[in-house]
Amino acid sequence: MTTFNSDFSDTTKRDRVAFIQSCWHRDIVDELRDAFRQEFAQIDTRQVDFFEVPGAFEIPLRAKLLAESNNYAGIVTAGLVVDGGIYRHEFVASAVIDGLMRVQLDTGVPIFSAVLTPHDFLSEGQPEFFKQHFKTKGAEAAQACAATLGGLLPQQAVVSG
After folding, report:
1. What would you report as the CA-atom Rg of the chain, rounded to the nearest whole angstrom?
2. Which pLDDT band holds residue 156 (cuts at 50, 70, 90)?
3. CA-closest candidate to residue 138, choices 23, 34, 44
4. CB 137 within 8 A of CB 77
5. Residue 1 confidence (pLDDT)
6. What gap in Å lies between CA 82 and CA 76, rounded to an integer?
7. Residue 88 is among the residues annotated as catalytic for this protein
8. CA 114/CA 136 separation, integer angstroms
9. Are 55 and 96 in contact (CB under 8 A)?
């Protein structure tokens, strides 16, 4: 069992980032992955390793295993949890986000969630909208990852007075 690593300089020195994506709604989630890959390559030199899991529910376990490997400076996650009328998608989304937060707090490895749960996915035109929206979210995830990993090093407190 891994314990929390508060030495962020050790974490941020790692030269790799993991990207985990669920395969449900792959055509849409791939848009996020591709946008992340393109944006991150422009702003950070770390290698990105890509992993797939069947659905969003499986993302937290894979994130925990990767975080415990001590190989990654951060882990980015991507998925799409939709209300298809069969089950309560809010429970799945909540379990995924809670699990990702737990991994982050248990290990000290930053986790970035681009696991999205749209309120309305099945209406006419919505899948096409989300294909475009996921491109934006991929670039934003890359920016957040690079900014956070660059900002985790200990800094002196700013004293005003």
Report:
1. 16
2. very low
3. 34
4. no
5. 58
6. 20
7. yes
8. 11
9. no
Q: Which helix (H) or strand (E) holds 106?
A: helix 89-107
Angstrom distance (rounded) from CA 40 to CA 31: 14
List C-alpha distances in Å: 96 to 8, 49, 72, 142, 160: 24, 21, 20, 20, 40
d(CA 87, CA 91): 9
**H-helix or E-strand containing 22?**
strand 16-22
Residue matched to tokens 């930053």: 110
Mean pLDDT for the chain overall: 86
Q: Residue 113: what residue type?
A: S
Which residues sit opposite 22 in a β-bridge? 53
Q: How far apart are CA 89 and CA 99, in angstroms?
A: 15
- Matching residue, tokens 């004293």: 159
Q: Which three-class secondary structure state does DSSP give residue 68?
A: helix
Q: Does domain 9-151 have CATH number 3.40.50.960?
A: yes
Catalytic residue among 26, 33, 88, 102: 88
Instruction: Compute CA distances 109 → 21, 65, 106, 147, whole Å.
Output: 18, 11, 8, 14
Alpha-carbon distance of 37 to 19, in angstroms, equals 9
The string of pLDDT tens digits covering residues 55-94 is 999 999 999 999 999 999 999 999 988 766 566 667 778 8
